[in-house]
Amino acid sequence: MDTNAIPTPVFEINVQTDRVKQGIQNVRRVSEELKKAREMHKDALQGDAEYHKAEEELKEKRLALNAVKKKIETLPEIHALKEKIKSLSEEKKEEQLSLSDWLEDYKRVTKQGAIEYGGVVLTIESNYKLKKRA
């Protein structure tokens, strides 16, 4: 054991724990909103009689289905819903990136590879990616 190691203050551990827990909540909240928005979008498309008819004839009329779908998606409310889905997807990605950073900080500060959230112990896993330099 390193006798020169400086112990991590309890306050900093609590801050890191709270940050990670908030990040988990944010990702879950956005995931639920995204799921609901996608369901609403799907229901809006399937609720249209013309779209449904074209869907039934999909094997024979693939082009007709795509034309109807495009027509429906030009309606302002459907277009707004698609924009919401896009926005929520981007927000979810941002929240996941923040949570990843906070988990990394939490693991570094607390020296623990797991965190308790909602009565469940969750293991912190590193997820590294390689990207080609520009």
β-strand percent reads: 5-15%
Q: What integer value in Å does the Rg equal?
A: 23 Å
N-to-C CA distance: 43 Å
What proportion of the residues is helical, as a percent range?
55-70%
Parts with pLDDT < 50 across at least 5 consecutive residues: none
Q: What form results from the Cα inertia axes?
A: elongated
Strand order within the widest sheet? 1-2
Number of domains: 1
Major β-sheet, in short? 2 strands, antiparallel
How does the helix and strand content classify structurally?
mainly alpha
Figure out the total of helices. 4
Q: Name the average pLDDT.
A: 88
Give the strand tally. 2
Run of helices and strands: HHHHEE
Q: How would you describe the overall organization of this protein?
A:
The protein contains 4 helices and 2 strands, in the order H-H-H-H-E-E. The chain has one domain. It has a two-stranded antiparallel ribbon. By secondary structure, it is mainly alpha-helical. Helices cover 69% and strands 6% of the residues. The radius of gyration is 23 Å and the shape is elongated.
